[in-house]
Amino acid sequence: MKRALISVFHKEGIVEFASELKKLGWEIISTGGTYKILKESGIEVIEVNNVTNFPEILDGRVKTLNPYIHGGLLYIRDNENHIKTIEDMKIDPIDMVVNNLYPFEETINKLNVTHEEIIENIDIGGPSMIRAAAKNYKDVTVIIDPSDYEQVLNELKFEGKTTFRTRQYLARKVFNYTAYYDTLISNYFNEIEEVIFPEKLTLAYKSKEELRYGENPHQKAAFYKEVGKKEGTLAGAIQLHGKELSFNNINDANGCIEALKEFDEPTVVAVKHANPCGIGSGKDILEAYKKAYECDKVSIFGGIIAANREIDEKVAEKINQIFIEIVMAPSFTEKALEILTQKKNIRIMQIDSIIDRKYKELDIKKVLGGLLVQDKDRILLNEEIKIVTKNQPTEKQMEDLLFAWKAAKSVKSNGVVIAKDKATIGIGLGEVNRVWAVQNAIERAGEKVKGAVLASDGFFPFKDSIELLSSAGVAAIIQPGGSLKDSEVIEEADKNSISMIITGIRHFKH
């Protein structure tokens, strides 16, 4: 007679599955709550301590950690020495394990959960049991996912046993699951010990969706979400309209959200190819949108928009005048949705708490043969910024300088931003030469450049950029400083009555 050990925390479909096993002539062993629910459902079941000849102890911490369990799982069915050992020790085979572990992930995500509760939800017996069954998948079937019950039952009904391919597939799922489970535990201990960069780095992500393709059509891709807090992120977004997101959509939309999080007042960020093509802040979202749009009316076409306030009818009407791939906001009025959904393919994403910055996350970049890992660039300014020129910025210029500095933080390096009236008017980005970035920003700003301010994500290595900015009519500059030529740069600014602030902190973004 075939024997199955069933002990599950998530009991979805387990009574029906066990009932079908019994009809097929299987003997069922069970523990704790699973034993109780099967017994109450009229299913004949053997309690595990009748197999182990040992009671559950330590409040259930020890119940399946026993040679009568693991010997029955691990012995190789065609190994004569193994067969003789289990016969001599009167160990019965166990041919199937159904188990899905204590809910550690759900526990750590609960509000006001205690450390003691978290520790008690670290499963010991379950992982040992399913790993043992998975190791011996040549002969043992192991199920951790209720969605696999039907496939297993169908094979048992029509083939009399599960296929080798199915057992291997199920074993693969086990090792993937236990690795994920243990990673959650190790990450929890890293967090309480305040270890940012452990000696062994493990990452825990769950599949959110497979994507049609990657950055290019010949590349395969998927989107994985991180465990825990999702508010204010694309992983926690609710899609209200439009076709599924692509790899590039997600990458660009994430850059848009990260840029938006720098601003507290009503702000709209427009992004194209992961770079801002317009950022505007105003008294309301309509004014902010107009400013973002005016920065680059060409590049915003086919771009992505994020707003940090509700989008209403007036803003929706403006957006609908051009082609936009994605619109993101914390909410949309009913009339705004009615207008925006007139276009079939526009993606409308509701992102609750879109300006929320209270999440711990590492910045990770894959390189050949390894990973680069750093904490996020969360610091905007040092405690003291220095006005290093004789000319002092006006209060209005100071507001625009800080706005431009926030905008420059989200631009790919080398990058500069020219701004006026809390709106970007010219962006120079991703250049290998800072002068080229300055030239491009000036050209894109056009006549609006006169009296505007500029922010640079890195220092000016020479005074040539200041000469260009002076000729264009830029009135004030904010930059990190730190160049060997700082004194010459400052002298050139003084010579042309340009105010300059040095922050002492740079914001490279590659």
TrEMBL record:
The IMP cyclohydrolase activity resides in the N-terminal region. SMART domains: AICARFT_IMPCHas (SM00798), MGS (SM00851). It comes from the Bacteria. Keywords: Hydrolase, Multifunctional enzyme, Purine biosynthesis, Transferase. It comes from Tissierella praeacuta DSM 18095. Pathway: Purine metabolism; IMP biosynthesis via de novo pathway; IMP from 5-formamido-1-(5-phospho-D-ribosyl)imidazole-4-carboxamide: step 1/1; Purine metabolism; IMP biosynthesis via de novo pathway; 5-formamido-1-(5-phospho-D-ribosyl)imidazole-4-carboxamide from 5-amino-1-(5-phospho-D-ribosyl)imidazole-4-carboxamide (10-formyl THF route): step 1/1. The gene is purH. This is Bifunctional purine biosynthesis protein PurH. One of its GO terms (molecular function) is IMP cyclohydrolase activity. Residues 1-144 form the MGS-like domain. GO terms for biological process: 'de novo' IMP biosynthetic process. Its EC number is 2.1.2.3, 3.5.4.10. The keyword Phosphoprotein does not apply. Belongs to the PurH family. The keyword Hydrolase applies.
